Amino acid sequence: MGKISVGILGATGMVGQTLVRLLEKHKWFEVTELAASDRSSGKSYGEIMKGRWSISPEMPKYAEEMVIKECNPDLRCDVVLSALDSSVALEIENKFAKAGYAVSSNAKNHRMENDVPLLIPEINPDHLALIDMQRKKRGWKGFIVTDPNCSTIHMCIALKPLFDSFGLERISVTTMQAASGAGYPGVPSLDIIDNVIPFISDEEDKLENEPLKIFGSISGSGVINAGFRVSASCNRVPVRYGHTESISVKLSRKTDREEVIATLKKFSPLSGMGLPSAPRRSVVYSEVENRPQARFDALVEGGMASVVGRLRKCNVLDYKFTVLGHNLIRGAAGAALLNAELLKVKGYI
Ligand code: NAP
To answer: Which of 105, 314, 323, 328 is least buried, going by the fewest C-beta atoms within 10 A?
Structure first.
């Protein structure tokens, strides 16, 4: 059987180059198009990315000679993975979906629209039902699915087993987010070296609202949000890759520490589904008292898992713990890719 052809929009950015790498030798998908802005189009990917490729020692050979196109819906591919800057993603993704492409996006623009799945395969694969609603409402041949914000994804993966087993009432989260989360060139080096910046534009709003949709239930008119509340404080820290999050939770049912840890450890809802990019374990629990750490643990399960540790009693809510996750892999590119794999398995592409 031939492979499914894939185009990457925003292929020159941090998330775009991570997609270029993750799609090298993919079992089901083949990259046939790379696209970006008119600053890059018309030139070869190798030429544009010289001095800019930064996520691995070398860029994959297959991409070097490919000529970057503009983001117009005349690309030779069935699926587009979008890593576009949010200032342009809305309009461009709409055009692609209208023209019949399946769009799996990393951008924030469509996430909270009521007929667009905000998808994490471990949590809400049933939200794919929104695709039919979306096509009907908008008259589109194609469709858009989105992945959540990079910190939201890892927090939600860690919360899912607790939500299922004990119920969630309140969540307080403080993030320490890597510099690569701001894209390329991102935060100026003189701002971030030897510093912590206690503000990331729009980020707290995403962490407080996206989980309510992700854990929500499907109704005839869209998603009914989950009933818990989230309070978030977000910080940018001088780390290259890997967002760390300190989380406290109030659960609906009383439990003990051992049961919470056992519940986290056995969470592996994707095993047996055959998705090529799925982690074996979506949550990896570390028993080491000073882990997880971004430097050592961001690439656990190839960067596709959320690493949890330090689970202990909280004097204000019930339990608190640390979550670490790779922002560019499971927090972005790997999430959009996994969503595309789920779309294939469920017959949408
Ligand atoms: P980035 O490094 O700034 O890359 C942005 C990409 O958008 C580049 O390929 C750029 O192409 C392209 N672009 C900009 N203006 C364009 C235009 N007018 N027309 C077409 N393409 C245009 O950003 P990033 O960090 O990769 O993030 C990409 C998306 O993923 C954003 O929406 C971001 O919010 C989201 N996201 C990022 C992370 C992360 O950890 N970095 C995590 C989750 C989600 P040129 O090179 O040609 O300008």
So the answer is: 314
